[in-house]
Amino acid sequence: MGSDAISVERFPEGYAIATIAREPVNSMNLELWLELLRVLQQLERDPQVRGVIWASGLRRDVFTAGNDLKELHAPSTSQSRHKEFWVTQTTFLARLKRSPLLTLAAIRGACPAGGCCMALACDLRFMTENGAIGLNEVALGIPVPDYWAQLMARTIGVGPADRQLQLARMATAEEAKALGLVDQVTTSEQLLPMARDTMAAAMNLPDFGRHVTKERLHGDFARAWEAQAEKEAAEAWGMLASPAITKAIGGVIANLQKRSKPASSKL
To answer: In this structure, is the dihedral angle defined by the CA atoms of residues 239, 145, 69 and 254, taken in order, positive or negative?
Structure first.
């Protein structure tokens, strides 16, 4: 099972590794969010899979650079596409948060914005020593989406989240561990072996207790998040279509293009 962007390998212990490789930085456009959702749903339906490790297969050290800016730049998209984009993104993230699978983000390198939110929606997060993670939307003049901010606060506490989000901070790997943003920090060479060892050991635990506990912790939050997807999409479009935000995002895209890099990150 897989696609051009995501490949899936299953292991006999009862888990899978889903490797995302949309060069050059795993920018999250509508098509990638659709594929992420499809892969998650297929793994959840597979009785032989009880856990999943999400990893990057890029040549460079990036987990994912976040949402493709062209999906957020009103002149580069349309209101109908943006609605599908936002609803698909939210559906995936909310369902990942309450998935019956044990989920682990193996973060190699940079993990800003949408990549950070995906990692926060996982049960466990392991990061390489050269990594950085955060919801840095404020740096673009865009507010952090409501449930993304809530997810950060639920993970590290309101006070630390307040400082990280308002100041658009990207935490280093060691800072992220101290904050509770990530659970383990390791080398690039040891990232997947550590993730696999952890997942294999967890597969020895019976599922029922973990499922019920996870549902009690995250079920109501995740369902409320998914339920407001269309409302949030409409509100986001109103903001993104404003002249000030259009100009700001357009400027970032232009700067990225001048540096011969694709416009593909930040939210």
So the answer is: positive
Distance CA 127, CA 167 (A): 22
Angle (nearest 5°) at CA 89 between 88 and 93: 115
What kind and span of H or E run contains 196? helix 188-202
pLDDT on residue 262: 46
Q: Which among 136, 116, 135 has a CA at the least distance from the CA of 127?
A: 116
Single-letter residue type at 20: I
- Residue that is written with structure tokens 């740096």 in the block: 139
pLDDT at 258: 82
Task: Name 238's Cβ contacts closer than 8 Å, sequence gap at least 6.
Answer: none
Write down the pTM of the prediction: 0.93
Q: How far apart are CA 4 and CA 236, in angstroms?
A: 29
Give the Cβ contact number of residue 251 at 10 Å.
Answer: 12
**Residue 266, pLDDT score:** 54
Which residues of the chain, if any, have pLDDT below 50?
A: 1-2, 261-264
Integer Cα distance of 88 and 181 in angstroms: 25
SS3 169: coil
> 7-11 long-range contacts, Cβ below 8 Å, gap at least 24?
7/57, 8/39, 8/43, 10/46, 10/48, 10/49, 11/196, 11/200
Instruction: State the pLDDT at residue 1.
Output: 42
> Smallest Cα–Cα separation from 117: which of 140, 95, 135?
135
CA distances from 47 to 64, 156, 207 (A): 28, 33, 12
pLDDT at 257: 81
